[in-house]
Write a structure and sequence with these properties.
This protein has 192 residues and is an alpha+beta fold. The chain has a domain of 118 residues: Jelly Rolls, CATH 2.60.120.10. The protein is built from eight helices and eight strands. β4 and β5 form a beta hairpin. The termini are far apart.
């Protein structure tokens, strides 16, 4: 596969978790769609059915929840190379409990729930891929929850800087504060 191909990074991503050939990749891609979203577009909307999961090839999306007091809680940022969906709604085919919004113009490779099921039946290596990705996602979410419960705001901020050094330049202070679970005033003190 040509390294300049727009799908090369996606091929490498899948191959990291499942041994596939370039021929199999061509078959796999017939189940996916490439979609471009504008800044502000929704990938999922609170209260609506979630039928797709997305791999971000370019851009940035955020999964958030607004509580009863109107406070925003950021569940996930998804930049290049990340998957994003409302997992509960996608896997259970129910309505979204999160909004997922593009913070930049975003290019994504998308698969519907129905096509994911068909793909896994047709190419068992992809069932293994999705299982391993789900495990990876679960571990990351568990680590984030533990970090949130056991580390103070400064430690959470420093960990975010270490894991995603470029992300800070791409998001607003309000979004960063919502992700860290702190006020904007506290965030200002952390960034000194």
């Amino acid at each position: 596969m040509n390294e300049t191909s727009e799908f090369y990074l996606f091929y490498k991503h899948i191959a990291k978790f499942s041994s596939i050939t370039e021929g199999e990749f061509d078959d796999i891609m017939s189940y996916f769609s490439k979609i471009t979203f504008k800044k502000g577009d929704n990938l999922a909307k609170l209260g609506e059915k979630v039928n797709h999961t997305y791999w971000i090839s370019k851009g940035l999306a955020v999964s958030n929840y607004i509580d009863n007091l109107g406070k925003e809680h950021i569940m996930q940022f998804a930049n290049e190379g990340c998957w994003i969906t409302d997992q509960q709604a996608f896997y259970n085919q129910t309505i979204a409990i999160f909004d997922i919004v593009c913070l930049e113009q975003t290019e994504a490779i998308s698969i519907s729930f129905e096509n994911r099921e068909k793909l896994c039946a047709a190419i068992p290596k992809m069932e293994n891929f999705f299982r391993r990705k789900a495990n990876d996602s679960f571990v990351k979410q568990q680590k984030r929850l533990l970090t949130y419960m056991t580390n103070d705001a400064t430690e959470r901020f420093n960990l975010l800087l270490k894991e995603y050094p470029d992300l800070i330049q791409r998001i607003s202070k309000r979004k960063l504060a919502a992700y860290l679970g702190v006020s904007r005033e506290t965030l200002s003190r952390l960034k000194r």
